[in-house]
Design goal:
The chain is α+β, with helices and mostly antiparallel strands. It has a single domain, classed as Aminopeptidase, CATH 3.40.630. The chain is built from five helices and seven strands. Strands 1-2-3-4-5-7-6 form a seven-stranded mixed beta sheet, sandwiched between helices. Helix 1 packs across helix 2. It is globular and about 40 Å long. The structure holds coenzyme A. Coenzyme A binds next to helix 1, strand 4, helix 3 and helix 4.
Length: 161
């Protein structure tokens, strides 16, 4: 049996509909659908944002969207198709999106996870994020968010003293 490890690559415009549908089904369930195809398309075209995808035989199996600013990067969305979860794909997409932030000297990655989604919070903890507080009603005034942060660089030794 051959084992193929799927490649991670930048999304193209034709991926927008599928990414938006995955956001609706796996991330925004129970909320108004905010990551509609047009919004995903804008993210794909935005120079300060990377939209990463993992392609399966027939369709996308995972994706992530990260926005890069001067000091911080913000992970906007991350999802893996349920059939492909717990095989390390989510962690690989996250690491792929983190790499340009490290190269650019960005100090921290921020993410919000739904407070009603403990598996996602655990996923981020295992990937080096620490909880930084709760934002009440962050999701359309209905669901709280747990804010998590991951430091990417330590200050030089002489500044730590
Ligand atoms: C969060 C998500 C992207 C992780 O993707 P993944 O490919 O399963 O992630 P990995 O295989 O790299 O890592 C799995 C880790 O997640 C955590 N995890 C996943 N499901 C879990 C569960 N039901 N209970 C507890 N921890 C869980 C574990 O820490 C697990 O680590 P382990 O392999 O050491 O046990 C995926 O579960 C998903 O798409 N969830 C729905 C969408 C979502 O919640 N996105 C995040 C908020 S934007």
């Amino acid at each position: 049996m051959s084992l193929t490890i799927p490649e991670i690559e930048l999304a193209v415009a034709a991926d927008a509909e599928r990414i938006a549908a995955m956001s609706r089904d796996y991330i925004e369930s129970g909320l108004l659908w905010s990551w509609v195809p047009a919004r995903v398309l804008r993210a794909i075209g935005d120079r300060s944002t990377n939209v990463a995808v993992v392609r399966g035989h027939r369709s996308l199996v995972g994706f992530g969207i990260m926005h890069y600013a001067d000091e911080c990067a913000h992970l906007a969305l991350l999802a893996v198709h349920p059939v492909h979860r717990n095989r390390g794909l989510g962690s690989r997409v996250l690491a792929w999106l983190e790499k340009p932030a490290r190269v650019a000297g960005i100090a921290r990655i921020d993410v919000e996870a739904r407070a009603d989604n403990p598996p996602a919070i655990e996923f981020y903890r295992r990937n080096g994020f620490e909880e930084a507080g709760v934002v009440a009603g962050y999701y359309q005034g209905r669901i709280d968010a747990v804010r998590l942060q991951k430091p990417l660089v330590s200050p030089p030794n002489d500044l730590q003293r």
